[in-house]
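Thread: magnesium ion complex, take 2
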Amino acid sequence: MSELKINTFKHKINYLEPEPEILEQAAKIIKRGGLVAFPTETVYGLGADALNAQAVKKIYEAKGRPSNNPLILHINNLAQAEKLVYLDDRAELLMREFWPGPITFVLKAKDIIPLETRGGLDTAALRMPDNKIAAKLIEFADTPIAAPSANTSGRPSPTDFEAVNHDMDGRIDMILYSNNLNKNIGIESTVIDISEAQPLLLRAGGTAKELIDKVLMKNFNLKLAQPDEQSKRRSPGTRYRHYAPIIPVKICYFKDNNFINLQDNNEWGFIGLHEPDKNFNFKKILIFSSLEDYARELFKSFRDLEAENLQGIIAELPEDESGVGLGLRDRILRAAGAL
Ligand code: TXA
Ligand code: MG
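Output below.
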């Protein structure tokens, strides 16, 4: 990757009432083709003008991301979607049902979207974030904002200022950050491909699969399918090792009041929903009281434990696939290199 060179402005911004003068400054950077990291309800995004190919190229550079891995275009109203992709009744219904929120729809792209933004594909991914700072930034910039997670490619996605700053300081023009009142989801949006007759779940995430299936079943007598090998090629992001700390991650399970696969190691850390027995000697133990808390803290825990010079992390893989469970399992399995 290229050397540090850019002076990165850092601005705290109010979560409920984002200050217009700060938004104005950030929007100006986006309009002239620069990069701004900003909070969303899932993870921090690294934004650029989605319709400016040169600006989008800078995203790939700042992240060290392969340029065939397409970006999500963030919008703040349905009229914008219409300009970017081909909509049908099903797409509109799903968008009205789930937006704003942690769900991304892949649809056939219109020519207005540069190939750089969609990684050379004939489809594009759209999302309307449920976060006032993100929504206002899109409004002020007056353009869809292409934004992957604001981490170095392959690393855990950032869920706080420190993580964004660690990966992006000196590489981007501005970081907007806020106290999000602990309401963020912590893992990325659910990505579904609705560009063809059979809707596909490309990435489990913040919006529960069962909720999407319910709406699809009621209105179209359909359910999400898993992508086969061929359609996986349509979602290049699922091909790479992801979300991984530098230190190894191993998985254990909790079943019938017992841990399976739990190895004792006093140089390792433990994260999960259940406390290991006192005779297990972990250097650091982080227990979460719900799936939601686990998901919210997962990426930050990876980064924190790595910074504490542990040799590795044992992560409990939750059994529960409901709600955010499926996405949480996916991120843990990927971090462990098991997907
Ligand atoms: O929650 C999120 O989705 C966050 C926040 C910032 O919005 N963004 C995010 O972006 O996670 P990123 O770039 O880290 O992940 C986008 C995923 C990748 O797996 C990518 O391959 C997939 O969406 N994707 C984007 N465009 C696609 C397309 N046209 N077809 C298939 N998959 C696509
Ligand atoms: Mg990412």
